[in-house]
Amino acid sequence: MANLPTEIIKVARPVHWIKNGALFAAIIFSGNLFSEVLFLKVVIAFISFSLATSASYIFNDMLDAPLDRVHPIKRNRPIAARRLSLPEATGAMFIFFVASVYLALGLNSLFLLTLLGYLVMQAVYSLGLKNVAIIDIIIIAAGFIIRVYAGAFAIDAHLSVWFLL
């Protein structure tokens, strides 16, 4: 029998949270890395974004479960392998989403809107845009740009267009 907390951790894919390290770009390149107040804000933003990305991974896995079950590697994912039921996965997704938004509310409205925009983009990606050539790559790249901006919004830093280029 599967261990529910272990399966939730697996489906949340914490190994992919490293991508959210892009939130630290603004604090590093603005020269404020050693400001304790700003660093704490970015850490909170990182946790918020990590919870949000986990919610989006769970949503994607719930949608893909039937196809994942016949895939040689993906069939071992918790939802596809039926070690995590759809109601359990939905509950975990909801908890990750609510916790993410709660943390984002404590930062500022621009960060919150950026986070929500990211989640909407990931939802439409999972609902079908991942199957549209070129659009899928654009959405993945946009996800990293959004992370960089989210980190800047968390600390009210200005990022020039040149920085993103």
In short:
It contains 7 helices and no strands.
Question: Can you characterise this structure?
Answer:
With 165 residues, the chain is mainly α. The protein is built from seven helices and no strands. Helix 3 runs antiparallel to helix 6. The radius of gyration is 17 Å and the shape is globular. It starts with a helix and ends with a helix. The relative contact order is 0.17.
Shape: globular
Helices, by number, come to 7
Secondary-structure element string = HHHHHHH
Please state the CA-atom Rg, rounded to the nearest Å.
17 Å
Distance between the termini: 49 Å
Spans of at least 5 consecutive residues whose pLDDT stays below 50 are none
Average pLDDT over all residues: 94
The level of helicity is 55-70%
Count of extended strands: 0
Q: How can the largest sheet be summarized? A: none
How is the quaternary structure best described?
A: single chain
Structural class: mainly alpha
How much of the sequence lies in strands comes to under 5%
